[in-house]
Amino acid sequence: MINKNFYKKTAGFTLLELLIVIGIVAILATAVIVALNPARQFSQANNGKRQADVNTILNSVGQYMVDNKGGLPPSIAALVADTWGEVCKTAAVSCLALVDLTVLVPTYVVSMPTDPTGATTNGAGYEVARTAANRVRVRAPDAELGVIIEISR
C-alpha cells in the first residue's frame, strides 16, 4: 500500500523566495546605514564639543580680564601678536612651549577643556592668539568635516 501523505507537498518557502527576501533586507539595511552615517555623526558630536570648549576658554579669559581691569592672562600677553599657541591642559614644567592658562583654573573654569581627538601629551588641542589690539582669539585646529571653529572677542 502506498502512503498518500508521502507525495503531499509541505507548506514552506522555496530557495528562490528566501534569496529574494534576504536581498531586499540587505538593500534596506545598506540604505539605513548610509542614511545614518555613524562616522559623520561622531564627527558632528566632536565638533559640537569643540565649539563649546572654545567658548568656555574664551569666556573664562573674558572673566579674568573683567576681574583684572582688562589685563590679559600673562601667557596670552606674552604671545607675539597674531601668532597661535597651543593651550596647556595642566600646570607643569612641560608647558614651557605652550600657553599656560592655568591661572584660569579653578576660579574661571573648573578644568581646562581638551579636544576630543586632538589633545597632545600636555596640550589641550586648542590654540589661542591675541591681536595687536589685545583681542583674544581661540580656535580648534583639529575640527572635522572641513568646519572652522574659531571665535574672538
Structural overview:
The chain contains 3 helices and 4 strands. It has a 4-stranded antiparallel sheet with strand order 1-2-3-4, covered by helices on one side. The model has no long low-confidence stretch (mean pLDDT 89). The termini are far apart. It has one domain. It is of the alpha+beta class and 153 residues long.
Helix and strand run? HHHEEEE
Using the alpha-carbon principal axes, give the shape.
rod-shaped
Bin the helical content: 25-40%
Q: What are the segments in which pLDDT stays under 50 over at least 5 consecutive residues? A: none
Please give the largest β-sheet.
4 strands, antiparallel
Calculate Rg over CA atoms.
29 Å
What is the number of strand segments?
A: 4
Distance between the termini: 98 Å
Secondary-structure topology with pairs:
Blueprint lengths: L14 H22 L1 H30 L6 H4 L7 E4 L34 E8 L5 E5 L8 E4 L1
Antiparallel strand pairs: 1-2, 2-3, 3-4
Short description, anyone?
The protein has about 150 residues and is an alpha+beta fold. About 35% of the residues lie in helices and about 15% in strands.
Keywords:
3 helices; alpha+beta; single chain
